[in-house]
Amino acid sequence: MMRFIGKWLFLGTTCLVFWSCARTPATTGSRTTTGSYNDYSEDLSTARPVYTPPTATPATSAPATLPPGRVVDTPKRPGQVLPAEALHVNKRLDAILDTIAVQNRRVRYAPGYRVQVYVGNERAAADAAKLQLYQLFPELSAYMSYQQPTYRLKVGDFMRKMDAERYFSKLRTVFASAQLQPDKVDVRRGLLIK
To answer: Helix, strand or coil for residue 162?
Structure first.
């Protein structure tokens, strides 16, 4: 009995696979939709709001009365003082901006760029490159790292790639093996670089 069910199951699965892989009959229309897409049009005039232009009223006419609880904002003229109830938004906004400023002061490092000027196994050569770097570019900070057996000397805290590329071209004339690399940079030092 199980063999009989297994054969029918195999036969049914095989037919299903052949049927799904069978070629569909060719359609008479074009397969591109650009023609029908460009011909599409729909009347949206019923969904669009209709605005009537305001009519000019004489200056002597009485102002229109508003329902209770409805306030109309009047444009601020130069020298006009805002009422105290309108300033509550500014107080809330100032509080939010102060909170954001405090959070931003906590950020110490950010993604940026540094120029790697030396890679090698000799500490004396790395120190000589660092000394030369301080003499030629005193405004840049140098960072030496050591991962056995390699010394790496990177320079700068560039927040923008444009600043890094400007210094990179100057550093490349002195250090032929200089490379521009993305790195985490000190935000405060990065903002001091002109």
So the answer is: helix
Predicted structure pTM score: 0.49
Task: List 146's β-bridge partners, or say none.
Answer: 151
Contact 179, 167 (CB under 8 A): no
Token readout for 108 is 């110490």
User: Hunting for tokens 């109830």 — which residue is that?
Assistant: 85
Give the separation between CA 194 and CA 182, rounded to whole angstroms: 19
Instruction: Tell me how far apart the alpha carbons of residues 141 and 190 are, in angstroms, rounded to a whole number.
Output: 10
Question: What totals of helices (H) and strands (E) does the chain contain, helices first?
Answer: 6, 4
The residue type of 19 is: W
List pLDDT tens digits, range 60-102. Answer: 554 555 556 555 555 566 666 665 555 566 788 888 888 888 8
Strands (E), 39-130: 109-120
Q: Which residues contact 117 (CB under 8 A, 6 or more apart)?
A: 129, 133, 153, 154, 155, 171, 174, 175, 177, 178
pLDDT, tens digit, 9 for 90 and up, residues 31-66: 555 566 677 788 888 888 887 877 766 555 545 555
Buried b (16+ CB within 10 A) or exposed e, 35-60: eeeeeeeeeeeeeeeeeeeeeeeeee
Cis ω for the linkage preceding 149 (within 30 of 0): yes
| CA–CA distance, 174 with 132 (Å, rounded to integer) | 9
Strand partners, 181: 114
Task: Return the SS3 of 112.
Answer: strand
